[in-house]
Amino acid sequence: MKKNIYSYITSIAIFTAFLAASLNSYGQDKKQEFSISLGGPFSYIDSDSSGKTVPGIGVSAGLRYSYYLSKSLSLGIGVEYQTYNSDLKYNSLAGSYAATDAENENFQFRYKAANVREEQKLAYINVPINIQFETPGTSKLYVAAGAKIGFASSGSYKTTFQNLTTSGYYPQYNVELFSPAFAGFVSTNDLVTGEQDLDTEVSYSATFETGLKQELGNRNSIYIGTYFEYGLNNIYDKTGNGQLVKYNAEQPVQLGYDTLLNSPLSSCTRLVSYGLKLRFALR
User: Fold this and answer.
1) Cα–Cα distance, 197 to 175 (Å, whole number)
2) What does the alpha-carbon distance between residue 18 and residue 66 come to, in Å, rounded to a whole number?
3) Any residues with CB less than 8 A from the CB of 254 and at least 6 apart, and which?
4) What are phi and psi of 138, to 5 degrees?
5) Distance (Å, rounded) from C-alpha 114 to C-alpha 187?
6) For every residue of the chain, which 3-state class applies, written as one string?
7) How far is CA 49 from CA 52, 141, 257, in A?
8) How would you class 103 by CB atoms within 10 Å of its CB: exposed for 0-12, middle for 13-18, buried for 19 or more?
9) Would you give per-residue pLDDT tens digits along the chain (283 residues)?
10) Which of 55, 258, 83 is nearest to 153 (CA)?
């Protein structure tokens, strides 16, 4: 995450320097356009999983600089802040793995969960680059396509279980224990974990936008359009054993909870966003 933060700060600094240089030459070159944008409302984290992904509400706000190669064709670069929200749901989950308890006894830790819901939240600093075509006239149709690179600025997840049952199977005694609770073996209803950090990697996305551009006088314009952005790479690197519930031999009563994105049930996590985009431009 620190590496990503450094990367997007560097990107913002480069873009700011570029914008300042462009503004300095603005009076001499009317082929330039500066705009601010707001987009949403669907922006979420998608993964290939056997669970159900429920897209959440996310928004983007940004700045864009465009240079016109001709009256109808322009190249653009920008910087934007975007949020992504998702719920990942499973009706039931189960797992087991080898562990050692506080008395140095080897056993198999088991868990069963019903109606699991994980709330996932991410925020990214994105740098989009695109090419735009627009028709002539004061009311124009426009189409823009390109790509953007995104750097994670924050991320978190929180998990809710309607029921979670943990137990320990000791093969040397051929017995499965469902208690005591202080040993980490217990059945709990309506369990909500604390919010935990969700670390993700750099995102690369393909972007598409189309709509109407209306000129407002000689220099101002407003864009009203729809957009779609699709992540091209996996943004989550798995670590550890991928188990949702983590046994802690030193403090068995305090179980740990991993993100569902780290489990074998999920793979290829990407960012997806679509909806409406508004832009106000000065040329």
Assistant:
1) 37
2) 12
3) 248
4) -85, -25
5) 11
6) CHHHHHHHHHHHHHHHHHHHHHHHCCCCCCCEEEEEEEEEEEEEEEEEECCEEEECECCEEEEEEEEECCCCEEEEEEEEEEEEEEEEEEEEEEEEEEEECCCCCEEEEEEEEEEEEEEEEEEEEEEEEEEEEECCCCEEEEEEEEEEEEEEEEEEEEEEEEEEEEEEEECCCCEEECCCHHHCCCEEEEEECCCEECCCCCEEEEEEEEEEEEEECCCEEEEEEEEEEEECCCCCCCCCCCCCEECCCCCCCCCEECCHHHCCCEEEEEEEEEEEEEEEEEC
7) 8, 38, 18
8) exposed
9) 544 455 555 555 555 555 545 545 544 457 899 999 999 999 999 999 889 999 999 999 999 999 999 999 999 999 999 999 999 999 999 999 999 998 999 999 999 999 999 999 999 999 999 999 999 999 999 999 999 999 999 999 999 999 999 999 999 999 999 999 999 999 999 999 999 999 999 999 999 999 999 999 888 999 999 999 999 999 999 887 789 999 999 899 999 999 999 998 898 999 999 999 999 999 8
10) 83
Report residue 171 CA to chain centroid gap: 42
Query: pTM of this prediction?
Result: 0.86
Quick one: CA dihedral 119, 125, 127, 130, positive or negative? positive
